[in-house]
Specification:
This protein is an all-beta fold and 79 residues long. It has no helices and six strands. The protein has one domain. Strands 1, 2, 3, 4, 5 and 6 form a six-stranded antiparallel beta sheet that branches.
């Protein structure tokens, strides 16, 4: 089974004047397969977010033995 986790230091949440949330985060995974989760429905800081993935980019972690990073940008609302 693959190991997958969010790099907590990468989590960034911002809101615009209309209340739309923009969430940026990096997911680290021990292989180069697709992510196990879409990270679109999460609870951070006591707020539940319902988001859609606007972009994702996979980058291999050089010298890590097969680990990769996924940079995700999501947009949605927080409840």
């Amino acid at each position: 089974m693959a190991v997958e986790f969010i790099d907590c230091s990468s989590l960034s949440i911002s809101y615009d004047a209309t209340g739309k949330a923009t969430v940026s985060l990096t997911v680290v995974r021990d292989d180069r397969n697709q992510l196990q989760s879409t990270y679109t429905n999460r609870r951070w800081g006591g707020v539940s977010f319902d988001c859609v993935v606007m972009s994702s980019a996979q980058r291999p972690m050089i010298g890590s033995g097969g680990w990769s990073e996924w940079a995700l940008q999501l947009e949605g609302v927080g409840n």
